[in-house]
């Protein structure tokens, strides 16, 4: 199966500029790496219709922005003497949602619109969550659905730790 290299080789210049490498290559060209997290116990989440994360308010925009860890979305891993920069899929997915939100409310077409929509589509397929949600009149009833999740706080903790270590290495 051919996968765009960009999926693995995200060139992340500041937060606003998510760009993928243009070239395509086979998935085997790069190994899949994971951000090491501490503990992976499942956690409960109640999916509800949040009053937060408004589409088009200043507070809403801040809440979306605060989904990024304090050092932003980048993860820096040492490979011997060189630092390889990554993002974590979690932050890439969340950032993409915010890019789509900004794109919608500003009515300005972001060059990342198509990338983000497809990236979220593939991410959702990849998770392939098979838990059942109640349905009424042919619609999914999304109020107060309980589900079990990976503990996303461990990914945030690992990102904060990684950022602190990267700052220390760079005397920042
Ligand atoms: C978001 O708010 C701005 C400023 O009030 C407005 O110009 C824009 O049309 C709004 N976007 C949507 C999708 O409502």
Please sum up the structure shown:
Keywords: Oxidoreductase, Signal. The protein contains four helices and ten strands.
Describe this structure in words.
The protein is α+β, with helices and mostly antiparallel strands and 172 residues long. 34% of the residues lie in helices and 23% in strands. The chain has four helices and ten strands; from the N terminus they run βββββαββααβββα. The chain has helices at residues 58-65, 89-106, 113-127, 152-169, and strands spanning 2-4, 10-12, 18-20, 24-26, 42-47, 74-79, 82-87, 135-136, 139-140, 145-150. It has a two-stranded antiparallel sheet. The chain has a two-stranded antiparallel ribbon with strand order 2-3. Strand 8 and strand 9 form a beta hairpin. Helix 2 (89-106) packs across helix 3 (113-127). The N and C termini lie far apart (42 Å). The model is unreliable at 1-25 (pLDDT under 50). The structure holds 2-acetamido-2-deoxy-beta-D-glucopyranose. Residues 56, 104-105 line the site of 2-acetamido-2-deoxy-beta-D-glucopyranose.
Task: State the helix count.
Answer: 4
First-last Cα distance: 42 Å
Low-pLDDT residue intervals, each spanning 5 or more residues: 1-25
Backbone shape: globular
Briefly note the structural class of the backbone.
alpha+beta
**Biggest sheet: strands side by side, in what order?**
1-4
**Sheet bearing the most strands, described?**
2 strands, antiparallel
**Hetero groups:** 2-acetamido-2-deoxy-beta-D-glucopyranose
**Into which percentage range does the β-strand content fall?**
15-25%
The secondary-structure element order is: EEEEEHEEHHEEEH
Indicate the radius of gyration in whole angstroms: 18 Å
Mean pLDDT score: 83
Number of strands: 10
> What percent of the residues sit in helical stretches (DSSP H or I)?
25-40%
């Amino acid at each position: 199966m051919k996968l765009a290299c960009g999926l693995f080789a995200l060139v992340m210049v500041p937060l606003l500029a998510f760009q993928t490498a243009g070239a395509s290559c086979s998935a085997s060209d790069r190994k899949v790496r994971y951000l090491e997290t501490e503990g992976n116990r499942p956690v409960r989440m109640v999916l509800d219709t949040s009053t937060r994360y408004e589409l088009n308010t200043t507070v809403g925009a801040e809440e979306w922005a605060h989904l990024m860890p304090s050092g932003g979305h980048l993860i820096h891993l040492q490979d011997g003497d060189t630092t390889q920069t990554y993002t974590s899929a979690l932050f890439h997915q969340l950032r993409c949602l915010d890019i789509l939100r900004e794109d919608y409310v500003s009515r300005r077409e972001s060059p990342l619109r198509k990338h983000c929509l497809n990236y979220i589509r593939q991410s959702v397929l990849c998770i392939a969550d098979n838990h059942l949600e109640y349905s009424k009149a042919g619609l999914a009833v999304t109020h107060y659905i309980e589900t079990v999740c990976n503990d996303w706080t461990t990914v945030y903790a690992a990102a904060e730790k990684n950022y602190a270590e990267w700052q220390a290495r760079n005397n920042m």
